[in-house]
Amino acid sequence: MGEPRADKVAVVEEVKAKLDAADGVVLTEYRGLDVPAIAELRRNLASAGGEYKIYKNTLVKLAANELGLEIDELLVGPTALAFVGEKADGSAGDAAAVAKALKEYAKSNDALVLKGGVLDGNPLTVEEIKALADLPSRDVLFSEFAGAMESMFQDFAGGLDNKLREFVYAMQELVDKGGPGGAGNPDAPEAADEAPAEESADEEQPAEATADAGEEE
């Protein structure tokens, strides 16, 4: 057997790179979908970070086997792969949103059939893909998380504000009472009695002192 053609090798490497980089991949049968229908599906998936590609099953098998992914049994009949990659703005794709887009599209297009997939290296059944589609999208989860955090911070700020008010009121009450040791504090010691006024130098001397003074004269 000769060496594989260069174009086949290039396709295998491309598929392997996409499988390796993707957070997940969903395999579908697209028999009966015409070109406009596939183009519409691709647009729906792109908004969720999904990329819808069609390759020969044999080349996909080679790429998957090199990565150790067990999807050979899904590669029967016309198969297309929906990779969970990046959105147009460069942000991460959303596996739940990609699964939802495929599930919703399949409801109105019987020709699109879910076959199975892989998420973070683990195989997914059709029922698991449908369950994944029912989960909130990444954007919804982020929004709910942000709302919960905002509410928590508001509650924290409100509680802190109440504590500060209580502290200010307590300090004001203490000031009104004169503070520790102040006149308005009932536990403060009474003020000391005023010291007696200094005796006047002109006060009368004792009688004995007056008599002695007379004898000296």
Structural class: alpha+beta
Q: Number of domains in the coordinates?
A: 2
Number of helices: 7
Tell me the radius of gyration. 45 Å
Order of helical and strand elements: HEHEHEHEEHHH
Question: How many β-strand runs?
Answer: 5
The CATH homologous superfamily name of the largest domain equals Ribosomal protein L10, N-terminal RNA-binding domain
Name of the CATH first level of the largest domain: Alpha Beta
Described by the principal axes of the CA atoms, the overall outline is elongated
Largest sheet: number of strands, sense, barrel closure:
5 strands, antiparallel
Strand order of the largest sheet: 2-3-1-4-5
CATH topology of the largest domain: Alpha-Beta Plaits
Kindly estimate the percentage of residues that lie in beta strands according to DSSP: 5-15%
Name given to the CATH architecture of the largest domain: 2-Layer Sandwich
N-to-C CA distance:
159 Å
